[in-house]
Amino acid sequence: MSKIRVIHIGCGNIGKGVLRYMKQRNMEIVAAIDNNPAILNKDIAGLIGLDEPTGIKVTDNLEAALEESKPTVAMITTSSFIRDIKEASIQCLSRGIHVITSAEEACYPWDCAPEDSKELDELAKAHNATIVGSGNNNMYNNALRGFASGINRIDTMTITDIHNLDNFGPHLAQSQGAGLTVEEFNAMFANAGEQMKDAPDLITPFLKSTVSTMGWTVKNESKSFEPCIAEEDVYSTALDTLIPKGRCIGMTTTITIETNEGPVAKIQIQTRTFGKGVNKPGYTSWSFKGDPDLKADVVELHASEHTSAGLVNRIEDVFVSPRGFILLSDMPK
Fold it and tell me: Bridge partners of 242?
């Protein structure tokens, strides 16, 4: 295998973690892209706490960086939505550069963005490249599959999560309703029981990725979205604004999937801001009902860091994976 050369696109919270972990592992970072004026032309060393400059300065000119740096892999951590990563992905895939993205929709892209996903899939195959969504789901999928290997019959699999939105960036916070009035939230998710077109549902592709990894297929699905309402004024670091009492500070999403194979998969996830200076770790509980039952609680979950690590840990795998827009279940285990 030729030397892996990585271009990184998006230097927010998740992106900084990716850069830091790649440097820790002595991976070759050839360029860093972001459009934030506050960090343009600055060495990435200042973003990730290094004393010595790396020689890699943040630029907003992706096309020039691609031509000059000749990367083999692109990391894209700019947004949760395929529509937002599409243009950068096209520029990379059309050059035969593999793409790994933190966009939650890319965990299971075919339902939430079918036309864009088809276009990216065909482009990737035409240029012998791969595009895949990874992050937190990389850890969840492997852990849950590991637990399932010790269960003879699974009737239900339930994931219960709590995450601090301030550990992520503004895109995710906005998608989870932070800062909205209750009326605005309810309007956004008015068609939650139907096939939503405008409401940002980032949890369904996450769960469908897990279902796929378990070797199950979707028969039916249902979903509900409830606002988390501020009981007092709360400052959101992710949004850099004060959310007044009575407005939304996030949401609780519940997704249930019935599978053709029999097991029912369910996730209930609360994503909310806890206020300035509150460094609250995440929490997850994984529960299986069947024969035998199993329950595992992870009481200290650092979701943004796990997301960054889940992206970096898939860099080498992308070279030996199928071409096109693939799922984590298509990659080496």
Answer: 235
